[in-house]
Amino acid sequence: APTSVCAGSDVQLKIMSPSPLPPNASLAWSGPQGFNPTFPNPVIFGINNYQSGDYTLSLNAPGCEPATASV
Description:
Number of helices: 0
Structural class: mainly beta
Order of helices and strands: EEEEE
Distance between the termini: 9 Å
Largest sheet: 3 strands, antiparallel
Helix content: under 10%
Number of strands: 5
Mean pLDDT: 90
Radius of gyration: 13 Å
C-alpha cells in the first residue's frame, strides 16, 4: 500500500484477507469527511487534502474473531 497519495488521484481501499469474504460477513469502513461505505473495496475518486487521515475497516464474519485494521 502506498504511504502517500497525490491530490487528485483515485484511491482504492481493498480487503486482502479473507478473500473471498465469507457469506454473511458484515463490514464497515470509516474515515475523514464522513467516509463510511459498507461494501468491500471502495474507491475514492479525485482525493483531496481534506480527505487525508486514517481509514479504518471493521469486519465481522461468522466463525471468526471480529477484526479492525487502519491505513
